[in-house]
Amino acid sequence: MKKITRLSITAAILMAGTSQAALALEATDFADRLVETSKLMGLAFTYGSATAEGDTVTLSDFTISIPGEDDVDVPGDVIFTGVVETAEGGFSVERAAIEDVEYTDEDEGITLNFVDIAAEGLELPAVVSIDTMLEIGFNLYDRVSAGPLTVSDADGTELFAIDLMEMTVEDADADGGLTSAYQVTGIRADLSSIDEPEAQEIFEAFGLDQFNASMSGSGTWWPQTGEGTVEDVSFVVDELGSISMDFAVEGYTETLYTELMKLNLKMAEMAEADMEMDDDQMMAMSEAMLEPLADIKLVNGAVRYDDNSLFMKVLDFIGAEQGVDGETFKAGLQFMVPMALAEVENTAFKTMVTSAVNTFIADPQNFTISVEPEEPIAFSEFEGMEAEVEADPFVLVDLLNVQITANQ
To answer: pTM for the complete prediction?
Structure first.
């Protein structure tokens, strides 16, 4: 049927006259540019037909190919609106969207709905090459978003949902920095639908029948200097607590970016050629992609936990199993910390950890583990240190200048 449809579309275009033929040609030019551009991002696309009406381009039979995996057919058409050819010969697109997804698993009795899947502010270069892609940087799109996503049972009861998934890219700063951010909001799950008795026991002890969470983060890359930062990557569970991370690196240069795009292109070409890859080949390809990253240098980093009742709920739960309340268990825990560190020979580290842990136990607000090396350290420097670290774990503590603090 797809072949017949494609032949029918071709025949219709040929019979529609010169004006329609020009529109079809422009649509094909746009579609081919999209396919070529996507290869440098590691994605292989194919399409069956491209049609244009005004500034709207519609691609049908849109398929995503991944090496070693079955092709993924995008449901319905991919519709690009506000398509304009730029003065340089590229294309700008106001919005691209696909049809809403609805899938029902009759055996499991669940239905998945995924709606409003779209990208905004797309830019395609006039000439597709690694050099032109480097000039565009992150500015292939302004925003990609999707949601709500809902999973429900046969009775229509919501089991799991996400309100919004979103990625955004900002225009380059005056200093050349390119910033991108993401957020996933309205994550929720009906915990009462989980049948495991042990899980329900924990949920009841914690007073939970609904899980609510969110995720977010942002990062900035300065191509000219090779510096990069990742800020406030966080996962928040409402009324329980959150964990966040941030770090800074250097050495993520334009040259490194180019090498990664070459690997992306190779992956896309393999997918396009429908090449089969066994586990060893996939591992080799993964290692090839990680190898250029080994010389990136860590400048600093931190992982932080902020408590919002979770710590005391854990102590109440563990204490109840031992026949005491949470406060009593907490008092005993403070005495256990120095005992647990008794064999640690590094006095300064032992003092720092004891102080931070007991401060948090006494008043659970936040707990942070950070690294602040005197000089940026390349990740490749950690290779071959296994034996040295096994003999003396504090080699890493000193090398990274590990700092542990609480309630700051």
So the answer is: 0.83
